[in-house]
Amino acid sequence: MDSTSASVDSVTRDLKDQSLGSDGPDETRSSNVANSRLQDLNWDHSFVRELPGDPRTDSIPREVLHACYTKVSPSVEVENPQLVAWSESVAQFLDLDPKEFERPDFPLLFSGASPLAGSVPYAQCYGGHQFGMWAGQLGDGRAITLGEILNSKSERWELQLKGAGKTPYSRFADGLAVLRSSIREFLCSEAMHFLGIPTTRALCLVTTGKYVTRDMFYDGNPKEEPGAIVCRVAPSFLRFGSYQIHASRGKEDLGIIRTLADYAIRHHFPHIENMSKSESLSFSTGNEDHSVVDLTSNKYAAWAVEISERTASLVAGWQGVGFTHGVLNTDNMSVLGLTIDYGPFGFLDAFDPSFTPNTTDLPGRRYCFANQPDIGLWNIAQFASTLSAAQLIDDKEANYAMERYGTKFMDEYQAIMTKKLGLPKYNKQLISKLLNNMAVDKVDYTNFFRLLSNVKADPNIPEDELLVPLKAVLLDIGKERKEAWINWVQSYIQELSSSGVSDEERKASMDSVNPKYVLRNYLCQSAIDAAEQGDFGEVRRLLKLMERPYDEQPGMEKYARLPPAWAYRPGVCMLSCSS
């Protein structure tokens, strides 16, 4: 891992960012696709059908051995549950008729209080490393999958209710979720998608009408909070920990790792299953012996490399938009390379490489913004070790997967930062100096890059006018710092003027990768405060706003403002895992 770690390390030290631009995948649907009613959804249950399950179906907390899941039904209690919001975008790719959301029984069905016809509910078994330490069995402690739906394009989408009641994996918890954390997960799932970052999605959010007791700060002062349930949607919720748990249990369960790998490849990586030797995917490793890894001779090695590259690309995307996940345990890492499990996440406000939104992470800041690239690699190493334990890949193939993580991350990260600055080519010195300046002066990350596109590539701009386009973000800087920024802008303009791209063209390009709006924690909190009083309007407004983060959206400028003073109180800018 040494050479790979060093290359990722250099970014961790240097810190960077950019965005994968785009408005997310194409979601236009053929007009002749008939929208389904809930009772007509095309259910499939491949996970339950093809993988070993727990013979027991009760929800008593216990070790579940030799199984990938336990069949368990939602048990949440509700009292006049209400639909808070729903995603038109997700409904569209599920071919779900928008009128279904008006059904009187919709909140009952999507709280889990009434069974959805055709569903076969279960909770998944997995383990994980938490803050670098093996934690043993974890599993879906309050998420219950209803099953998989095949849409009109034969795409597989798993529906999961988070907060629907106890499972064997709940340990000492109640299996429930509160409105506060559910709003955050619902909104951020959709916001990340429209930023162009791979993510699990959210179909809808409902309140249960009941209260849940939570000690939000772990300080011995629990309080009653409104309960809620998010319907999460993804092609699969398989995690690194879904494989690790079976490796941790020794020889008897190693065969399950192969079965689960075959399942994932068959349903979610079919191109690997169909790979032929004629494709000649042989690569020299970076080792001194220049040994060769042939990915066509071992599908598991090809799979490990793809997961590694997807993860690297994902983390580069996070760095680009200034997103800090907050809890990058291996049970929160998707094998599909999706952002998964939105807990105490946070987008950067003032640029601070050591920012962590998670109060539990404060002592060591293991999961801070700057560390995410390294943590991604560490997690890939744990996953590769699991596949090695099951003899699916050898050491050379495991090392190659980690090597590919480093290469892919650097390639993606550099491309992203180059686009963020509108540069003709990557310039490490210019970007490093910029990030250093931003950290020193605590410059707002999102707003700075958005305003940067207004700088003109004109070397003749008078020195006292150079910072005018950036004055809204360069606040309260003294003479010395002003000079540092003038020097940087002069170097930047010099670099731009060599590109031959017009100011208008560059601005359009930069604005397509530098969002105007991100889901800042204080915006979430405003929506939460209103929703807890029964007003869901702000949740719905934020959802609409975040569907077009790269557009100016006249009239919505207040949502791009710097956080107000109240946003720095505990529970807003920083959160615990309590939800």
Automatic annotation (TrEMBL):
List, alphabetically, the NCBIfam families matched: PRK00029.1
Keywords in UniProt for this one?
ATP-binding, Magnesium, Metal-binding, Nucleotide-binding, Nucleotidyltransferase, Transferase
Cofactor names from the entry are: Mg(2+)
An annotated Gene Ontology molecular function: AMPylase activity
Q: Which Pfam families match?
A: SelO
| Residue ranges, annotated region (Disordered) | 1-35
Q: Which family does it belong to?
A: Belongs to the SELO family.
GO CC annotation: what is one? chloroplast thylakoid
Q: Where is the composition biased (Polar residues)?
A: 1-10
Q: Which domain of life is it from?
A: Eukaryota
What organism, scientifically named, is this protein from? Acer negundo (Box elder)
Protein's UniProt name: Selenoprotein O
Enumerate the InterPro entries for this protein.
SelO
